[in-house]
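Table S2 (text version). Query chain:
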Amino acid sequence: MNKACFYILGFGALMLFDTLTQFSFKLASTHAGEFVLRLDWLVQVFHKPWIYGAVLGYLGAFVAWMTLLKHAPVGPAFAASHLEIVFVLILSAIYFGEKLKTMQIVGALCIVFGIVFLSLSESKKPHD
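Corresponding structure-token output:
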């Protein structure tokens, strides 16, 4: 597998697992009701499938991240890992009907442009 394909698949998997984690937490909290520091509330949370989606997402993201760090340059890899914020923002607007504010859009664009610029600067460096 060539490097470009590895990066696309690896970062795609990382984004998928990170997004699954955030969405699962949102759904678990929505279905669990208002937070109350009591054992019965915690039991109710663990009876919802969404909390297990969050655990699965964390495990998958960990494996994807460790695999990527083994092969990808750290700077662009760390920056690209923050694309999850952009995906969650967009999908939350679509799925949950959350309204995007101007500053959220500006922030998302800053993340995307920052990743692009880091990747471009990394691609111009000589590699070992």
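Notes on Table S2: The first helix runs from residue 3 to 32. Residues 3-123 form one domain.
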